[in-house]
């Protein structure tokens, strides 16, 4: 049987692969999107658990995520997210009133954050003034300078005399959640990208956005629909095992047959990309292993009643990092569903689910008065061992360029050298860059996809390991003394 030939084969159905496939299909290319798992979405997906729709991770975005928001418009789901009118984060701490870290309307950047930092009650007056000086210095750190990437964010804070309390109670709120690593192990270049782009350059750039529907309904399902409407082929459960040159084409050997394409977008995590990239296409792909990975753990708690009015909140001096109200998105009909997101969580991967659940249950009871008399009706843990690459100093030199030495083969994914951290925005930017490189290779217009996508959206209604799920058999199993857990 003769293999069907396409203009482009996109390997990997995460956000980078979706962005590339839609952009190229919009430009008129014949596209096959190949995904080894049963569904698209990559790390941003959902699954059913009883009556609940559960997201594997608690993904938020910022107003400055321009490429990501453009993709949502193209998929017809931009109306399914909400963005704050202004950056506003409730900060919870044991024994303290709720403090709100928010920008002031009407002031230009970076003055928009001046009142917030000066009034930040968890720090002393001296620490607040020191934080202001550090913020001013961060604004002038060049995230694109190679030397910046050789330093850690922790070194920067030490040089600016930031106290441990300042780092823990202020800077880590953003840095750890954005970079999935503690400041001492975080690239200063990537941190500067986050702080400068999101908070210090534009007053509105850091306003926080949240999905109001499940992640699969936001990304994967509409991507399948849009690509189908464009005549593209989407094949799930189709694992690519080898890519080889066949004359002017590239042949992809897959788990269900061969695919032939004029060009390939390799949009898979770096361990899989290192295995699949043909010899000579890139220099030393084995170095990509140095990017490593860091984990995110989520503890999911369903209460018998509403325990907080916060849609989301950060916590300091607590085992809780960030909590999210997932009641509406999950479809829960009674009670309240909170998800606690724990970044830089490698040390938590081996801890029993019952222990993690009990720790977070008790911590939330100290933060939320409404949780003290409430009962848990369900609780479980999801773990993403390879949630992001390790965004450490020196990674800039390891992250590869989009283009390879093999004509027609390009790389995509949040781990590729976009200059952005491992975020949804970084993934979509990499997919768009890959699509533009392929459009040039095919002789098309690199800008046509953006134009076509904008027109189409205007008429529409508004090989990483999978995450593991651990559960306690019943609320009685939540005693912190218990260490056993049900099989995942």
From TrEMBL:
User: Residue ranges under compositional bias (Low complexity)?
Assistant: 447-460
Positions of the UniProt region annotated as Disordered? 444-488
Q: Example GO molecular function term?
A: oxidoreductase activity
Residues forming the Amine oxidase domain are 15-438
Quote the protein name from its UniProt record: Phytoene dehydrogenase
The opening ranks of the lineage are: Bacteria, Bacillati, Actinomycetota, Actinomycetes, Micromonosporales
């Amino acid at each position: 049987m003769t293999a069907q030939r396409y203009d482009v084969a996109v390997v990997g159905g995460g956000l980078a692969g979706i962005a590339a496939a839609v952009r190229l299909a919009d430009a008129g290319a014949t596209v096959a999107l190949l995904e080894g798992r049963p569904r698209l979405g990559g790390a941003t997906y959902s699954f059913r658990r009883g009556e609940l729709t559960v997201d594997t991770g608690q993904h938020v975005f910022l107003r400055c995520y321009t490429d990501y928001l453009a993709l949502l418009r193209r998929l017809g789901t931009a109306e399914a997210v909400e963005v704050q009118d202004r950056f506003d984060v409730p900060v919870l701490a044991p024994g303290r009133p709720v403090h709100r870290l928010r920008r002031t309307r009407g002031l230009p950047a970076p003055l928009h954050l001046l009142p917030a930092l000066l009034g930040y009650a968890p720090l002393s007056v001296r620490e607040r003034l020191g934080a202001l000086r550090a913020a001013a210095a961060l604004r002038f750190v060049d995230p694109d300078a190679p030397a910046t990437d050789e330093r850690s964010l922790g070194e920067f804070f030490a040089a600016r005399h930031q106290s441990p309390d300042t780092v823990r109670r202020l800077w880590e709120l953003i840095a750890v959640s954005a970079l999935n690593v503690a400041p001492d192990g975080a690239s200063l270049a990537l941190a500067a990208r986050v702080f400068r782009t999101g908070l210090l350059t534009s007053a509105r750039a850091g306003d926080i956005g949240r999905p109001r529907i499940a992640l699969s309904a936001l990304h994967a399902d509409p991507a399948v629909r849009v690509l189908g409407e464009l005549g593209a082929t989407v094949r799930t459960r189709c694992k690519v095992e080898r890519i080889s040159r066949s004359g002017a084409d590239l042949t992809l050997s897959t788990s269900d047959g061969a695919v032939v394409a004029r060009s390939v977008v390799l949009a898979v995590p770096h361990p899989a990309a290192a295995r699949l990239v043909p010899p000579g296409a890139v220099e030393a792909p084995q170095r990509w292993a140095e990017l490593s990975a860091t984990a995110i753990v989520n503890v999911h708690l369903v209460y018998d009643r509403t325990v907080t009015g916060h849609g989301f909140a950060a916590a300091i001096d607590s085992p809780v990092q960030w909590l999210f109200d997932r009641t509406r998105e999950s479809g829960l009909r009674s009670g309240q569903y909170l998800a606690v997101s724990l970044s830089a969580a490698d040390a938590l991967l081996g801890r029993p689910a019952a222990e993690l659940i009990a720790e977070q249950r008790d911590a939330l009871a100290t933060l939320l008065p409404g949780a003290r008399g409430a009962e848990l009706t369900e609780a479980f843990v999801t773990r993403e061992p390879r949630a992001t690459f390790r965004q450490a100093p020196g990674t800039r030199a390891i992250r590869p360029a989009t283009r390879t030495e093999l004509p027609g083969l390009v790389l995509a994914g949040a781990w590729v050298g976009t200059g952005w951290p491992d975020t949804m925005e970084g993934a979509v930017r990499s997919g768009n860059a890959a699509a533009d490189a392929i459009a040039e290779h095919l002789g098309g217009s690199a800008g046509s996809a953006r134009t076509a996508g904008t027109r189409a959206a205007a008429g529409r209604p508004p090989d990483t390991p999978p995450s593991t799920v651990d559960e306690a058999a019943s609320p009685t199993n939540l005693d912190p003394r218990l260490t056993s857990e049900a099989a995942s």
